[in-house]
Amino acid sequence: MTSVQAASSATAPPRATAPPRATARTWAALGVLALPMLLLAIDATVLIFAMPGIAADLSPSATQQLWIMDIYSFMIAGLLVTMGAVGDRIGKKRLLLIGAVLFTAASVAGAFATSSEQLIVARALLGLAGATIMPSTLSLIRAMFIDRAQRRFAIAVWSMAGTLGAAAGPIVGGWMLEHFWWGSAFLINIPVMVVLLVLGPVLLTESRDPSPGSLDLVSAAMSLVAMLSAVYGLKTLVAGEGAVTGVLCVAAGLAVGAVFVRRQLRLTNPLLDVDLFRARAFRGAVVADLLSIFALIGSLWALTQYLQLVVGLSPMRAGLWLLPAMAVSAVAAFLAAALVKRISAAVLVTAGLLVAAVGFGLMLGLTPDSGPVPVIVALSLVSLGGGVGMTLTNDIIMSSAPPARAGRAAAISETAYELGTALGTAILGSVLAAVYRSQLLGDSGATAVVSPAQLERASATIAEAFTVADQFPASVAEVLITAAQAAFTDALTTVGVLGSIIMVVAALWTAVTLRGTSATADLTRQSDRAQAVSATGSSATG
Length: 542
Hints:
Mean pLDDT: 78
CATH topology of the domain at 24-154 and 181-214: Growth Hormone, Chain: A
CATH superfamily of the domain at 24-154 and 181-214: MFS general substrate transporter like domains
Order of helices and strands: HHHHHHHHHHHHHHHHHHHH
Distance between the termini: 50 Å
Radius of gyration: 25 Å
Strand content: under 5%
Low-confidence stretches: 3-14, 525-542
Shape: globular
Structural class: mainly alpha
Helix content: over 70%
Oligomer: single chain
CATH class of the domain at 24-154 and 181-214: Mainly Alpha
Number of helices: 20
């Protein structure tokens, strides 16, 4: 060997080794992680069907009913960032198991609550437990599946569990409440959590940040206040309970949030890893997820009401009709994992969002007599496009963060989901309500047979229109119900147009921000380079 060859050999970079592949134990652990996601998705919808029984048994006031429903999502939204950071510090596996114990205890407390106050506390504890479980499952997947392609498939399984849970919620809830008392809606949580507590310690691998630093309690409090204020304000505005209160709460949440972000930028070990957003792919994927959920949740809420109150399906039958769309979403997740090996992630995510935009656009053709089939066709296209897009964006989000910081990345992803849910319900829900009210109050047939005061009451919601109609003879009731169904359908088509526009905007965003994103490359390098540039800039200005 010549001296030149020897020198070249000595300085040549080591050949990259293939990442370790998942074992049978790892895949079994994935099944354990999918279970709580299935359960949380069911739990998010099943209480809607239990509320009539709760109202009859515990006699909660109108305000208490709102807190029973909303405190769960408030706690999750407010604590996700904090719990993601806690998981990085004490270990994601440990935090997940702690959350499972708390979720089990809170479920028992909720099932056997004897007052509205006890039930509200139980729901708050369920939200706290949910905030520990949601980021822990996704970040553990990041730690266990080192191979990028296998991790993408694992995220597809994880996403499918949530989709199936959302579809099963109305069916499971309807069946349980037909055969048992309202507390059974809480007890269905226990078997799943017991399985997690038995198999989790055996199958799951611990993952934590080796040098996380101390937990900043001031930042944790600011995160909670910012999220709770913003979400509460949005829900207050939607419910029409006080515009001033809603605006002030949203403004306070945004102000505290801005101070929180500035604080994170100055800390050596921040609670929210803002530097992750310096990576273009991470930033693009998070915003795309938020916009997708915003459109999907707002439209799904409207479509569910359409199936029940315009088409006339029972909650359980409406849930059964939704199954094909949910199945399409599950298949789309695995389709995305397969296609991204041949087609770039940017092209697939952009195409998926455009397909979803077409689905929303099909809502323009809905009439009160359309029946469930056009709804399911439209929703299936939305589910196909959204399933492809969100599977890949979740993969990009988790692949952009090192395993040690996976908890914080997962918390950001889940926070985007919760914000999208809150904004979709608030903004698109407000549009739905406003258009419905305007159309009904302007309907000549309804104004001719119903007094202004009664029509004003019926214009609050389509469900309230049915309540008002029960007070009239059949001929008058039919006119009012027909007018309400027509007005609601018009409002639904407006929401469909907005959903389509949002999906097109999201598609344009991903086409730019995800350009060049590799399905196999280590995206953490891009994040690390961005942080290095940030650190250099900070040193220069210092």
